[in-house]
Specification:
This protein has 17 helices and four strands. It is mainly α and about 425 residues long. Among the domains are: about 55-215, no CATH class; about 300-415, no CATH class.
């Protein structure tokens, strides 16, 4: 297993414990910071992000080991100095990739999932992308390559740097005194997740806030302007996989419908949210113009579907760890099919949360096809215990989906409420 995979066995339980603690503290303070379907959607998004690593469908345009081999002029020592510089470079790179993801239409699709929750809490911090298909951040790590900092250091620092961004996704911690001048705090990040005109597209820093102050993107949280969270074009679904590609789908439709060739080309590289004029008139889309009058997406889910989805979430997360723990035993092909199985399963039960029981049923049909493909790969072989667990769960979860398909009244009626 990679260092990242191994670290998940410690990170995931830690995150869940902190989410529970946050919920208890919020309840004591009589603050509503979450709703069940949003929590399930956020945690499911985190699972899809982990599962994506098992599918390995990213395309690396520029790799750091290649830059290191071509550009190294000096070997920085001692090791503590290399680690320190590597962390600074990692954070500098994170700032600019983060800023790019916010400001360019096509790159927003890589990041929209993280901002899609209309709540702000620790679970929303786990909304991570599965649509970062092309990797090119290494181009910003040239200083580290010139100094000869080993790629193995970044293999360790990368996950640690990512996990360090979890804690500040909360409304329960106020401003933190002198730390506000150095690191990214919950106050800074509340601003970043807000869609208020005063706050939007600010505070891109990941660990250190001074990048924002240096490059002019800093905004302090103001007591008289409470943050309103979410995205300007609301996701209006609990399905994290749909959210990941919703913006891309809109860009594809706009590029197709616009009459001008130039608009078909430039739409991808224009500022986030830009649309051709002829498309705006013909195909208007729901956009939040006044954040203070925004209605949150809420669904009147039954307790039964919440419990069912929660159980599915827990089992899906467990399956990821089981599959990743047995990669050497089951092989790459079964690992890939297992990851696809989990993705489809998440698509299915979050579709039920949205009330789309027909789509959920079709999804489970594909899930059964994946199970059939696993059997073909295992023809004449002993079925590994981990795959037996996948089969048993696949059958039970599909029966559950069929039950809700036949009894849609047990789901809910979708409605928007304040």
């Amino acid at each position: 297993m990679t260092f990242f995979t191994k670290s998940l066995f410690y990170a995931i339980p830690s995150f869940l414990i902190l989410i529970i603690i946050e919920s208890i503290l919020a309840k004591r303070k009589k603050q509503i910071i979450n709703q069940p379907p949003d929590l399930i959607s956020s945690l499911s998004s985190g699972i899809t992000n982990i599962t994506k690593d098992g599918l390995k469908y990213s395309v690396v345009i520029v790799s750091y080991p290649w830059l290191l081999d071509k550009l190294m002029l000096y070997k920085l020592e001692p090791i503590w100095a290399a680690i320190f510089i590597a962390f600074i470079v990692q954070d500098f790179t994170g700032y600019w990739i983060h800023r790019l993801n916010h400001r360019v239409n096509i790159f927003w699709n890589r990041h929209v999932i993280h901002h899609s929750s209309e709540e702000f809490n620790l679970s929303s911090g786990l909304r991570q992308s599965i649509s970062e298909t092309f990797q090119f951040s290494a181009i910003l790590m040239i200083p580290a390559a010139i100094l000869g900092i080993s790629h193995k250091i970044f293999i360790i620092i990368g996950p640690i740097h990512l996990f360090m961004q979890f804690w500040y996704h909360t409304r329960l911690i106020n401003k933190m005194g002198w730390l506000e001048k150095i690191i990214v705090t919950p106050s800074h990040h509340r601003v970043h997740h807000a869609i208020n005109p005063e706050y939007i597209d600010k505070n891109y820093g990941q660990i250190f806030i001074f990048w924002d102050k240096i490059f002019g993107s800093f905004q302090e949280e103001k007591l008289d302007i409470p943050p309103v969270y979410g995205i300007l074009r609301p996701a209006e679904t609990w399905n994290p996989i749909l959210i990941n590609y919703k913006h891309l789908w809109q860009l594809l439709k706009d590029a197709y419908h616009t009459s001008k060739i130039w608009d078909k080309i430039r739409i991808w590289f224009m500022p986030t949210g830009w649309r051709p004029k002829d498309v705006i008139k013909k195909f208007p889309i729901h956009t939040t113009n006044n954040p203070y009058k925004r209605s949150k997406y809420k669904t009147s889910n039954s307790l039964l579907i919440i419990l069912w989805s929660g159980i599915q979430l827990a089992i899906s997360g467990s399956l990821v760890l089981i599959i990743f723990s047995n990669v050497e035993n089951i092989g790459k092909n079964l690992t890939t099919l297992g990851c696809i199985f989990i993705m489809i399963n998440i698509f299915s039960y979050t579709s039920l949360l949205d009330g789309n029981h027909i789509i959920a049923l079709f999804s489970d049909g594909f899930k059964l096809l994946i199970m059939g493909s696993m059997l073909l790969l295992l023809k004449g072989q002993i079925i590994p215990p981990s795959i037996i667990i996948v089969f048993l769960y696949g059958i039970l979860s599909t029966l559950g989906t069929i039950y809700f398909y036949k009894n849609p009244k047990l789901l809910f009626n979708i409605k928007l409420v304040n």
